[in-house]
Design brief:
This protein is α/β, with parallel strands linked by helices and about 325 residues long. The chain has 13 helices and 12 strands. The strands form 2 sheets. The chain has an 8-stranded mixed beta sheet, sandwiched between helices. It is globular. The mean pLDDT is about 90. It binds iron/sulfur cluster (SF4). The site of iron/sulfur cluster has 13 residues, from loops.
Amino acid sequence: MHETRTPLLEVEDLAVEFDTPRGPLRAVRGVSFQVGECETLAIVGESGSGKSVTAHTLMGLTPLLARVAGGRVAIEGRDVVGLPDRAWQKLRGERIAMIFQDPLSALNPSLTVGYQIAEMFRRHRGTGRAEARRRAAELMAQVGIPDAERRLNDHPHRFSGGMRQRVMIAMALALDPILLIADEPTTALDVTVQAQILRLLRRRQQADRLGMILISHDLGVVARAADRVAVMYAGRIVETGTVAEVYQRPAHPYTIGLMRAVPTVRDGDAPLEAIEGHPPDLAAPPTGCAFHPRCPFARDVCREEDPQPRDLGPRRASACHFAEEMIAHARTR
Ligand code: SF4
C-alpha cells in the first residue's frame, strides 16, 4: 500500500492511566504506531486489551477517570495531546472521525438522519439549510443508501442495522477527514452485510485516500480489511506487522492463541482452541511478561523479565523473549 513520508498519524510511547481506589491502572503502556495515507491498521485483542481506550484517546475522548500519562500523538505532524476542547471539536470530524459498533447509540433517535447529517455541514461549515440537505442526500447515495432523497426524512430506527452503519459512515465522512477510526464497525451485523460494509469502507478509503484504524476482536474481519496489524494484550502492543506476516508467521504466543480460536483463519480442520485463562488485572499485573500465566511456552525468564519488543524486520516486531522460536514453530505447524 502507498504511504506518505509524513504519516497521517503518529503515536509514540502512549500511556493512558485510570485513577482507581487501588492506585493507577495502566490501561495503555508504551504504545507506538503510525498510519499512512490509504493504509488500514487493525488493532486487535480481547476486551480489556486497551484497544478501545487507545482509539478513544486518538479522538481526544479519553474515558472518564482516565488521563494520558505519557507519550505523543501527532495528526499530520501536529501534536494533539492536551489540546483544548475547542481545538478538538474542530479536529474531530474535520481531520479525524470515528464510526462505532452501535450506530443507534451514536445517532439521535428523535431526529431524522437527514437533519443529523446536514447538521455536520451547518455547524462546521456554516452551510445554508437547503444546500446542507442536498449534500446530505448526496452523501447518503454515495454510501449506498437507496432512495436517499426520500430517506433523509426517516428516523434512525427506520433503518436496518447495515443501513444505519452506512448512515454513520456518511456522517463520519461528511467533513472530508483524513483519518477514520472504525471501532468494531461490523460486529453487530450478519456476515453478508458485514462484507458489504467492509467493501464500502475500502472503496471510500481509496476514493478519499483515508488512513484508517480498524479496532476489532475478529481476526477474520481484519484479514479481509486491513493492511497491517497491531495485536494488543494487557495495554501493550505485543506483535505488529503486515496482515500476511502476522497471519502466516505469528511471532507471539498470544497471536497464535487468537488465531487458533478463529474458524476463518485456522488451518484445515484442527479443533478450535480458546485461550485459557483471563486477561490480567491491570491494577496488579503479573511480574515479567503479562501473558505468562496463560502462555503455553512460558519459561522461568518469562516470569522475571518483561520482554521488550524485538525487531523482526521493517515495522515488524514481537514482545516475546522467544519471538524467533515462535516464527519457527508457526512454520512447522
Ligand atoms: Fe510466552 Fe514468555 Fe513469550 Fe511471554 S515472553 S509470550 S510468557 S514465551
